[in-house]
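Readers outside the structure-tokenisation community will struggle with the description of the input data as it stands. For illustration, here is how one protein appears when written out as sequence plus structure tokens:
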Amino acid sequence: MTVTRFGSDSLFDGGFAYGSRVPAGRTLFTAGVSPLDAAGAIVSPDDPVAQATHAVGLLTTLLAEQDSTPADIAKLTVYVETADRGVIADVWRAVEAAFDGSTPPAVIVAVTVLPYPGQRVELDAVAVTR
């Protein structure tokens, strides 16, 4: 199965996709991919950029276990614990780099608090399985 990403001729072209179209099939919804290590500890406490990179890696692993890949992501949500637009921009650049030029349609949301002390980033995604 493939995900077809699309933009719009009528909306501002910020260089990113506004949405995805997926064929009928199995849809995969992930929840709360946190930047945790194998022992359940937060990776790089209070470093949102490092946590974003780590969380994308974990999401990639989770997708692979479910017969999916980052290319199969139809929608990505990035949560960042911050009120600083500069931090949001830094996290966005890290996410784009982690997806190596193939960032899925995504939204980045600033939140007040995340579950773990030192946690600054969390991801969830909608993808398709092959």
The longest strand covers residues 73-81. The chain has two helices and six strands.
